[in-house]
Write the structure tokens for this entry.
Amino acid sequence: RELAASMLRKAASELRMLPEVAEATALWRSGALSAAVRPLQRAAQVMETVPMPMLTLCANGALAQALRAQGQLVQEQEIWNRTLAKLMPPATVPYASDAALLALNGAISHALHIGDAARVSELGGRARPLCSSPPLGEVSCMAAQRALAMHSSCG
């Protein structure tokens, strides 16, 4: 769990170096939330080409938050769907990266926010087998299972 948190912090720190993210941060802090969406969209597009899952997750997660703050819930769901499509392992792989599990958590959070119990159940079903297998290790598996337990029980 600490490794995943450390990787996420590092990715967020690296992402802040992008001019688009710096611009979005300044806009967000000034209260111009709707104006922050466009630079976050550009940052997410840039990260689509980078083979670093945590950077992809951070860029798309920031964009998803901005979209939710603006009430653009359909667009937020599209971001989570695209993120899952990029980060989730093929069905033949019995485990997922920390980034994929965090993306699932983001998608489940969105489904809970809009009251889509069927989607919560479906995503929880995808998460359960992934967070109980290597390479997460026993401690990380237990942490992932606890983090997803509430979501899974809702569906």
